[in-house]
User: Which sequence fits this backbone?
């Protein structure tokens, strides 16, 4: 049952990312502007993180439970970092995806009986790393 929940939440997170892209696409059509490089890369990263979470759920089904669960937690954390840094612009629509991937990670963590602290550590590591990267790029500290 837990693996079904993990898949359900991973698919809900991916669906939330698709809805996010639909909302952003409508917004871009209403006010077209320069999409590359930075905003476009932001959108590509969001899509890749959703695919990473789905790949993690698939990997857990194939027997690599620890690696799959870690991939889901890292994806959720990095998406949370993106949502946090874009909270006052386009980050809010990402929150349902972040919550769904957290739920998928929790379902996987409980079925693995892994320590929740380790899983949350992966989440926080990805969140802080992503936020630091975004902050550095936005302020010109990373070139």
Assistant:
């Amino acid at each position: 049952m837990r693996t079904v929940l993990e898949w359900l939440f991973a698919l809900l997170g991916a669906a939330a990312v698709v809805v996010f892209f639909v909302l952003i696409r409508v917004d871009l059509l209403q006010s077209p502007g320069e999409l590359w490089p930075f905003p476009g890369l932001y959108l590509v990263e969001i899509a890749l993180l959703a695919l990473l979470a789905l790949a993690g759920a698939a990997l857990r089904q194939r027997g690599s439970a620890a690696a799959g669960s870690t991939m889901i937690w890292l994806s959720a954390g990095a998406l949370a970092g993106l949502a946090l840094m874009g909270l006052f612009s386009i980050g809010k629509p990402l929150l349902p995806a972040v919550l769904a991937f957290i739920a998928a990670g929790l379902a996987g963590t409980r079925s693995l009986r892994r320590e929740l602290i380790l899983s949350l550590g992966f989440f926080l590591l990805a969140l802080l790393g992503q936020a630091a990267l975004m902050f550095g790029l936005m302020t010109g500290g990373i070139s």
Remarks:
- The chain has a mean pLDDT of 83.
- The helical segments are 2-30, 38-61, 65-85, 95-112, 116-139.
- The chain has five helices and no strands.
- The CA atoms of residues 55 and 83 lie 21 Å apart.
